Amino acid sequence: MDFLKSSAGTLISLLSLLLLLSTCSGLYEDQIKKFDWRSVHVGSLKHAYVDLNHFQPRVLLSTHEQVIGSLCPKTGEIIWRQVLEKKPRGDIKLLQVSGFADDSSDTAAAPMGSHLGFDMMTVQGHAPALVRGWNTNIGTIEWEWSIMPLNTERAQDAVWFYSNSVLYHVVPAWRSHIEVTSYFATSGHTTGSTSKIMAAWINPESCLLSGSFYVCLDGKQLISLDLLAKSTQVIATSLGSEPSSKIQDLPGLNGALIVDKKLVSVNKDQAVCPDLSSDSFIVGSFNRRKVIAYADLINNMLNINAVYLDDCSPVPELHLSVAFADHYGSPSLRSFDCKSTRNSDGKNCLFLLSTSAESIVAVQQGRVRWAREESLANVIDTQFLDLPLADSEGTLENEMKGKAGDIATAFMRRITTQAIQIKSLFLHVIGLGPPPTDTQRAGLVRDSFGLHKMLVLLTRSGKIFGIDNIAGKHHWQLYLPNVAGFENSEQMRLIVQRSSKHFPLQPLCAIVAKSVENGNGVLFRFNPITGQASEGGLLQLNYKIKQLALLPETEEDYVKGVLILDGANKVHVEPKHATPLAHGLYLYTADLKTAELEGYYVKYAGGELSALPIWNVRLGGHNSEQQIISVASKNPIEHVHSQGRVLGDRSVLYKYINPNLVAFVTQAPDATHKSVLNMYLIDVVSGSVIFSMTHRKVRAPLHIVHSENWLAYSYFNDKVRRTEITTIELYEGSAQANNSVWSSLQAPSMPLVERQSYIIPTIVEAMRETITERGITNKHVLIGTASGGIVEMPWHLLDPRRPISSTTQGREEGAIPYIPELPLPTENYINYNQTVARLRNIYTAPSGLESTCLVVATGLDIFVTRVAPSKTFDLLKEDFDYILISIVLVVLTSGSLIVRHLASRKLLKQAWK
Amino acid sequence: MHLRLSYLLIVLVSFFASGWGFLEHDGWINIDLHHALTPARPEHFSHRGNISIPSLNAGLSTIVQNPLTDSELESLKVLARQNGFYRLRATVTYPNGSSQRFLTSSKACSLLLAQFNDVLWVSLDPNGYVTGITTSQDPAPKISECTAENTQQINEKNFSSDVIIRHAELAPVPDTGSFIQKFEREREARERGEVRDNRGFFAKYWMYIVPVVLLVFISGATNQDAAK
């Protein structure tokens, strides 16, 4: 009996353990990096120092993304990286590496671990200005001090320089004077009082600091002042003519400047080589002599030359000529260093360049040693493209598309294609098949589940990347110089004009941007699989772009045309042959500043397109004090599978699914409520305000997702100082007005609105809903947090119909009782420890599998993964035991056959008895 | 030109399922309506009528509208046959004298088929300023296209309009109060021992059922052994 008791006890405990171990939605340890990858970036270069003679060779840098770091000079990999505060607090004003000071006599290097010297020092921000000393080997902060300037507004333009262990803070008061305060660099103690230097000639447009010289351009002359000199004597240096471009300083030489590609010195003690002419100069040392190196791009060849500073004689050892790829853009030399070897022949010199496409390129030994694509730190748009079909599947696809009415011919074609397939399979097996195509060789062939795609990324600098979404390999790169985002803080767009579905025709993507030169529109079309320009490539439009929309596919070449509304409210279609498809389309524009919306109806009559204004909405309030801070429309490729929601009493609450519904959020300061946030749901075809809601004492940052019949947005509540999420669901009611066709002009006027607010115990940086092929899978909301994590939040938790009191009706409906705070369990972080620094946006795309949604999160880093909101119901587990199931099947079938045989024999025997 | 007080309609705005939107400072507005009827001249607007709303919170309105002239009706029929837009321009005047222009459109055909019965939705922002004015008609029964035949017999020339004011609503805040109350109540109930266990039968009594089942199994097995 005792034994029974104990065994029952263990069984019970086992059972309860099983109950506790309910399904886990997190990732298993062996799945890490199985279908996700992350690429880490630092951003475009601001300051850089190559140091090959350190015991640990390194490249120290700071970037425009407020990152400091150290790279390995051999491979370009990041040794360490510190992501500092956001702008303006983290803006790096000065990076000083010991041993790289202006004059060689100065050295701030101190024994390790002492608080007197520094390896590397940064100055960032203006109010307060933070001065930090760093350990360059491991990237830790060693010491820090800060100052709070008296006049914070003036301090915005402050500049810093370092000389002889003293850090100088230079605050210009435009058209009046300069204030210079000096501090001991490592301690922050002032060395004296602030000196005021009268200088009425300084202005914010044309002044800079070169070493200790404050220099301003005044027409044909440079006016300068040595801030370290005892006498405040103003030096005027005349130039031959008025320079056509901005003046630049030349780091490393006190008082040297680059004016119109030439070197000029305002310091009479500092000679430069004035005859050199180049796009970029740097100062370094070679054979213990100071040299000036300069780089130019001539016919796609990068030429690097150098001269000794003292006698301007060339340094032949440093001459270099390298083929330089187009997609890097125009280079500028940033730093170089040579390894001191026995025979210093310049072979061991590493030149570091930054380019206009925000790449960091290292050139050594006559070739590009490595390149970092730092433009990926600013991704502004992404698309997932299906890969092309393998040839055999392509022919099959072709056959399926053939519109043969005759059964007999279709049958014949099928038989022949299958015969060809069998033949090619046979040839392939015996090794006589046709050679694989380029894309096949690169492994770019569609898989059976549509999980393998080409990820096209558009970056702010105008560089476009084609990246394998499984392996993370960069397949191609393109660079569009002289393009920028639009007015209204609208970014460039990446649009898919033709998908990979139309087999013999190649897919087609387009970039829509603004030309930097004249502000007109630019259209660039390319093949997203190969990265080659197609359909003529770059197209300069002769009008400004105000709004754009995609047209339906054309009949003949399946291209989705781009409908463009220009600055003068005229409409254009690109390509031209898709023009008739624009008839009957509706467009809207939104001005962020005035918060005015306008709706247009596009008409095609007599070969001409025209746009008729049909509605307008003013969200600006009386004096246009409200400004639009966010516009959220639904994903155009979204499918809504379920038209309604089954209630507790088995009746159906129909969803209000209006594809033309767009959410607008405005914000304005308010006299009584401090800050007011208004949310409007507007039908952009009829222009009617479907719903509006106001939040008091609430402000940006705002992040919004809009999908199906719901909306979720996060904001900061000023009153209670926390981030909250408000969710809204729209329902038509218990009957559907028109279940086949939606018409905004004859829509049910007033949907039922369910709403609820939740507290989210984190800072939200980005939000996006998951999307799948058919919309059957549950929707989850991916929430990017400030710490770089991405949380998968089921819609059940955000549901505004969560009942306050747990009623039976709510339970029947499957709604969880309301809890004001949303849970953030760690297993719901889809990027586990792969945090995305400065997470800015999350993009989602459906895969070929209904259960799976592809995700790319961008920020300083890029993280690519896939999520399955309703678990992988259409996919076997990857550790599925195929052998066991086959053995079981074989044994069972053979067993049943044998037993049947035996049974019949037995029956026969019995019959004979 | 004889002006006729056509209709005075009082519409109670009681469409909101939950929570009215109220303005802190009530105000009045006056709306001047102009419409474009000629398809050839889309920028030509003629006067249609005037609406005054003395109190935005009460939502009552006085509507004075001109009847259409014969030629206007004809051009509207032409517009309807072309499936064009009936465009309405509303000029809103506020108590402080400033005015704003709004534009709204509906299909001319559906206006004609609705016998000039339309609804004007006036959407307000939280401070009582108009964000948008929308005109809409009840969905036309069956007929969806205007042909010469089915527009022929329409002779109605008087507009009959309803004005509905839509206020901005106040957003919900996280309901921590009632959650804490509920939590407290549950805790008290538990302390008093009044908590009603509403779990399922198996969830409640599994600790009794499992040993019994096990006992049955084990005894069955031992019995078999004994039988052997």
TrEMBL record, chain A:
This is ER membrane protein complex subunit 1. Residues 707-912 form the ER membrane protein complex subunit 1 C-terminal domain. Residues 27-154 form the EMC1 first beta-propeller domain. The chain crosses the membrane at residues 882-903. It comes from the Eukaryota. It is found in: Endoplasmic reticulum membrane. It is a single-pass type I membrane protein. Keywords: Endoplasmic reticulum, Glycoprotein, Membrane, Signal, Transmembrane, Transmembrane helix. Belongs to the EMC1 family. It holds the Pfam family Beta-prop_EMC1_N. Coiled coil: none annotated. Residues 1-26 form the signal peptide. The keyword Glycoprotein applies. The gene is LOC108621563. InterPro entries: Beta-prop_EMC1_1st, EMC1, EMC1_C.
From TrEMBL, chain B:
Belongs to the EMC10 family. The keyword Repeat does not apply. It is found in: Endoplasmic reticulum membrane. It comes from the Eukaryota. It comes from Drosophila arizonae (Fruit fly). This is ER membrane protein complex subunit 10. It is a single-pass type I membrane protein. The gene is LOC108621411. Keywords: Endoplasmic reticulum, Membrane, Signal, Transmembrane, Transmembrane helix. Pfam families: ECM10. The chain crosses the membrane at residues 6-23, 205-222. PANTHER family: CHROMATIN COMPLEXES SUBUNIT BAP18-RELATED, ER MEMBRANE PROTEIN COMPLEX SUBUNIT 10. Its main location: endoplasmic reticulum.
